[in-house]
Amino acid sequence: MSDKCAQSRRNFLSRGAALTAAVAIAPGILLYDFARARPVGEPASGKVRWGMLIDTTQCESGCDECVQACNRENALGSDTGATAPQWIRKVDLEQEGSGKKLSLPMMCQHCAEPPCVEVCPTGASFKRADGIVLVDKHRCIGCRYCMMACPFEARSFVHEPVLDHSGATPRGKGTVESCTLCVHRVDEGRLPACVEACSKSGHQAILFGDLSDPASEISKRILSVTPTHLRADLNLGTGVSYLGLESS
Amino acid sequence: MFVGMPMKVWRFWWYLMGTSCLVWTMSLQAAVPPLDLDIGLGGHCVDDPQYMRLNHMKLLLKQRDETVRQGIRGGKYSLAKCVDCHASKVNHSVLGTDRNFCQGCHVYASVKIDCFECHSSSPTVHTLRRQAAVESHKE
Amino acid sequence: MTQPSRSPITVRLTRYFFVLFPGVFLVLAGAWSAFQMEEHGHVITGMNNQVVWGLPHVFAIFLIVSASGILNVASMGSVFGQPVYKARAPLSGLLAIAMLAAGLSVLMLDLGRPDRVVLAATTYNVTSVFAWNVLLYSGLFATVLMYLWTLLDRTMGKWTKPAGILVFVWRFILTSGTGLIFAFLVARQAYGSALLPPMFIVMSFAWGMSVFLLVQSGVLWWHHLPLEPAILKRMKNLLALFVLAVLYLVAIYHMTNLYFSRQAAFERFILLDGGTATLSFWLGYVLLGTLLPIVLLLTPLSARVCNVLMASFFVLIGAFSFLYTFIVGGQEFPLLVFTGYKVHSSFGDGMIASYTPSLYEWLLGLGGLGVAFVITVIGLGLFNFLPRDVVEKASVSG
Ligand code: SF4
Fold first, then answer.
1. Partners for C (CB, 8 Å, 3+ pairs)?
2. Is any Cβ of chain B less than 8 angstroms from the Cβ of A138?
3. Which of A42, A231, B118, C297 sits at a 20 to 30 Å CA gap from C171?
4. pTM here?
5. Is the residue at A213 inside a domain?
6. Does C73 reside within a domain?
7. Which H or E run includes C241?
8. For residue C49, what is the domain's CATH number?
9. Chain B residues with CB inside 8 Å of A187's CB?
C-alpha cells in the first residue's frame, strides 16, 4: 500500500530516474546552465522547481568550502557550538560492513511537501512557488515546532541577538532559520554561494538548476543516473538529491 | 467614598482635570525642540515626502510580504533603499543618535521600530550589489 | 458563609496572604527569568539546536495535560451523575483553569518571540496541529468558565449537565490534540506513534487525579475540615487504576518501538544507556512514579490518609520524570537519516546531544506552578469551591 502511495506522491524526479536506462546522455557537468534573472516585479513562478544534485564522488572529506561560503554570504560566523547556526554542514559517512567512506554537504532539502510548513502554526515556514522552502521571519514566533518536525535537522534557532548584519539574509534573535537556497542570488540569476564555492575549489560536487525544465543540465543529468533522496520513506519529494549514496 | 459627593464638587473636579491636561500638553510642545534630522544623502525620495512620512510603514509592510513570500524583487519601497539614502554620513547608519534618520523620528513620535534587529541599519555590500543588479536589468 | 473557621477576619486575611505570598514569589521569579530569556535569547538556557524543547515544555505539558485530567472529577459528577464527584466539581473546574493558564503562560514565554504570539491567531495555518491546539486551549477556557458559572449560580443549575458534557468532550479532544503534537512528528523515532493520543488521555486521568487529591486535602486542612475516609478510598482506588493503565500504555509504546527495527537503537538509548533520560525513566517514572504509588494505594498501607497523599505526590514525580525522558530524551537521540552508515558532523549527526537545564528554565517552569497556585488560592478566596458534602456535614455537626 505504501508503495502505491509513494508512487503517486513521488515527484517527477524519481519518475525521471525510472526512465534512466532508456536515455543515456554524455556525462559531464555544465555548471552555469541558467543565467537569466527573473524580471523586476515578477513573482517566483510555479513553472520552475529549483533543486540540487549532489555528487558525493566529487565531494572531498575535509573540504568545507561550501560551508565557509555559506557562512560568509549570510554572515553566520564560523562557530560550530551547540547553539550556533549551521545552514549547511559537512557529514562524513562510513558504510557499516564495507567501511566505504563518503563525505557530503547537508542542508535544507527543499521538500515538495515540507513537514516544517505543515506544522508551523503561523505560516511563517512556507514554500515559494518555485519550490524554495523559507522562513518568513516577520511571522516566526520561535516555537521551534518546525525543528522538531524536520527529518534532516536542517534548521537552526537564533539563540542570541544578531550583531553582524552584513549578511545577505536578514536574521534575528528568537526566530528559526535555514538554508534559503540563496534565494537572493537565485532571483538575480546567480548560483547559490555554496555551489559557486564548490566549483571554484575545483570540485564539481553540487549541480544546481531547474528540475522542471527538461533542457536544464540538472534534469538531463538526472535522467542518466539514479539519485538517492534522503528519507525517501517519508515521500517528501526532496528537491536536493545525492549521487553515490546507497540507500538501504 | 466618592458616592456621596455633591454634583458641584464633581464638576469642579473635571474642570480641574481638563485644564491641567491642556496646560501639560502645551508645555510639552513648548519643551520639545523642532525635529532636526540628519537625512544622510537625501535627494529625491521614491515618492512624495509627506506621503512617505504618513504611509512608509504600510508601504514597507506590503512590499516586504510580496518580496519574501512571492519573490517579487525590485519594488519601489524597499527598506534597504531607505537606509542607502538616509544613513548618516557621520556614522553610516540610520540609527545611533536621536538625530539619525529612523531613530530620530521614531524617538520623536515614540514609536518602536524593530526592523533593525534583523535588517542592517547601514548600507551593505549586498544592498549595493542588489541595486546594481536591478539597474542593469532595467536597461 | 459556611466556613466554620471562627477566627476574626484580620487573622484570616493575614493567614491568607501568608499562603498567597510564596506563589506570588514564584510568579515573580518566573517573570524575571522570562524577561532574561527575552533579553539575551535562548543562549542562556540549556536548549540548543538539537534539544529545542527543554524543561519549560516539560512543565507546560505537565500543567496542560493535568488540567484536562482534573476535569475528570467534574465529568464524573456532571456527566455520569456521581454525587461524590459532583460535590467536588467546582474545585476541579477552578484547578483546571488555573493549570491551563499556567501551562499556556510557560509555553508562551518560552517562545523565541513571545511578543508576537498574537500572530498564532491572526495568521492561522490550518494544517498545523500546534495551531489547532491554540483553538482547543482557548476553547477549554471558555467551556470550563461556562461550566463553573452553571455550578456557582443556582439559577443556571439546569445547564450544568449540558455544560458538563461539553467540557467532557472538549477536554478529550484537547488531550488527544496534545498527544498529536508529538504523534505528527513522524521523522523522529521517539514520537510519531498513534499510541500517543490515548496515552496522553490516560496520563491526564492519573495526573489530574493526583493533583486533585493533594489540593483537596490541602484546602480541607486549611479550613479545619475532615477528609472523609470513605470518599478518599473511592478516589484512591480510581487513581490506582489510572496509574496501572498508564503503565500498560507506556509498556506497549516501548514494546511496539522495539518491534520496529528502525527504532531499536532508540529504545536501547532510552531504556539502557541514555544517562539522565534513562535514569529518570526507570527511577523517576517506573520506580517512584508507578510502583511505589501502587504499593501505597493497593496494600493495607493505603488505610492511612498520608500514604494516599504520598502516593499522589509520587505519581506527579513520575509524571515529570516521564515527560523529561519523553521530551528531552526523545530529542537527545540523533535522527536517523543515513541508514546503514556511521555518521559524523559538526552539527551533531550521529551523536547523542546533551542538555542541562539552566536556572532560567527551572525558574520559568516553577513560575508556571506559581501561576497555577496563585489563581487557585485567589479563586478559593473569592468563591466557595469547597467540596460541598464535607462542608454541609461540618456545618450540621458544628
Ligand atoms: S519556529 Fe517559526 S517557522 Fe518554525 S514552526 Fe514556529 S513559527 Fe513556524
1. A
2. yes
3. C297
4. 0.87
5. yes
6. yes
7. helix C229-259
8. 1.20.1630.10
9. 71, 73
CB B77 within 8 A of CB B56: yes
Q: Domain range holding C114?
A: 28-386
Q: How far is CA A45 from CA A79, A135, A143, in A?
A: 36, 18, 30
Of A187, A172, A183, A205, the C-alpha closest to A67 is A205
Please report, for chain B, the start and end positions of each structural domain, with discontinuous segments joined by +: 1-32, 49-138
What confidence tier does B70 reach under pLDDT thresholds 50, 70, 90? very high
Whether B69 and C123 have beta carbons less than 8 Å apart is answered as: no
Residue given cell 535537522 in the structure block: A153
How many separate domains does chain C show? 1
Residue A166 lies in a domain: yes
Asked if residue A157 has its Cβ within 6 Å of ligand 1, the reply is: no
DSSP C1: -
d(CA A5, CA A157): 33
Category of C109 on φ-ψ map: left (φ > 0), alpha (ψ -120 to 50) or beta: alpha
**C36 falls within a domain:** yes
Contact A248 C340 (CB under 8 A): yes
Query: What's the number of domains chain A is made of?
Result: 1
| Cβ atoms of C96 and C68 closer than 8 Å | yes
Task: Note the pLDDT tens digit of each residue in C347-391.
Answer: 999 999 999 999 999 999 999 999 999 999 999 988 888 887 777
Q: CA angle, corner A44, sides to A183 and A13, nearest 5?
A: 80
Residue A124 near ligand 1, beta carbon < 6 Å: yes
Residue A248 lies in a domain: no
Host H or E run for residue C238: helix C229-259
Distance A123 CA to ligand 1 centre (A): 8
Q: What is the pLDDT of residues A59-84, one digit of tens each?
A: 999 999 999 999 999 999 999 999 99
Q: Which residues of A touch B134 (CB under 8 A)?
A: 40
Task: Tell me whether strands C341-345 and A101-107 are parallel, antiparallel or unpaired.
Answer: unpaired
Q: Are C234 and C271 a contacting pair, CB within 8 Å?
A: no
Q: Which residues of chain C have a pLDDT value below 50? A: 1-2, 4, 398
Burial class (CB in 10 A: 0-12, 13-18, 19+), B36: exposed
CATH no. for residue A18?
3.30.70.20
Burial of C288-316, coded b for 16+ CB within 10 Å and e otherwise, reads: bbbebbbebbbeeebeebebbbbbbbbbb
**Residue C135 near residue C174 (C-beta atoms within 8 A):** no
Q: What is the DSSP string of C153-198?
A: -GGGGGGHHHHHHHHHHHHHHHHHHHHHHHHT-TTSSSS--TTHHH
User: Would residue C275 be called left, alpha or beta, if left means φ above 0 and alpha means ψ between -120 and 50 degrees?
Assistant: left
Considering the domain boundaries, does residue A129 fall inside one?
A: yes
